[in-house]
């Protein structure tokens, strides 16, 4: 039985070796798993720190950019307001100049029309005087001086004021 006992003992020794190796593997796996969890935890903490830092930097840059943009906007508004005021001032001056020029043109046009109307009335007065003179001469030529029509005295012709037309009527 010695061989059987030896084989039994070898078998028990091998089983103990396998168990020791399994124990070592189990211990190694546990250590690796613990190490991996620690690394993951450190990575997570590092990542959270970096994300927090990036967000803080982004917020800071955003606020700085906002302040710069607000300053630029304020300067732009002031510049635009000043330029618009200047432009409106120029337009007002131009409007006044155009109004004065138009007023002058209207006054000149009125004066020219008044002069033209005055000239027309003068020409009409001269024409009426010539027409009345022609009428009298024609009447004397046709009827002679013995005609019984009353001849009214000629009113003085004022070239500035139109005179109403008078017709000689026979006395009956």
UniProtKB/TrEMBL annotation:
Domain of life per record: Bacteria
Region (Disordered) residue spans: 1-20, 147-172
Compositionally biased tracts (Basic and acidic residues): 1-13
Name of the featured protein: Gas vesicle protein GvpC (20 kDa)
Organism: Planktothrix rubescens
């Amino acid at each position: 039985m010695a061989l059987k006992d030896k084989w039994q003992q070898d078998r028990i020794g091998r089983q103990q070796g396998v168990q020791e190796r399994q124990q070592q593997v189990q211990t190694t796996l546990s250590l690796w798993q613990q190490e991996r969890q620690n690394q993951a935890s450190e990575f997570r903490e590092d990542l959270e720190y970096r994300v927090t830092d990036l967000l803080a930097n982004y917020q800071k840059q955003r606020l700085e950019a906002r302040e710069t943009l607000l300053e630029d906007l304020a300067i732009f508004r002031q510049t635009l307001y000043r330029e618009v005021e200047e432009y409106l001032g120029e337009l007002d001056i131009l409007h006044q100049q155009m109004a004065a020029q138009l007023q002058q043109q209207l006054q000149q046009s009125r004066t020219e029309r008044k002069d033209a109307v005055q000239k027309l009335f003068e020409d009409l007065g001269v024409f009426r005087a010539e027409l009345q003179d022609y009428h009298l001469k024609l009447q004397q030529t046709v009827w002679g001086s013995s005609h019984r029509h009353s001849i009214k005295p000629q009113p003085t012709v004022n070239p500035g004021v139109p005179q109403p037309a008078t017709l000689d009527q026979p006395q009956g």
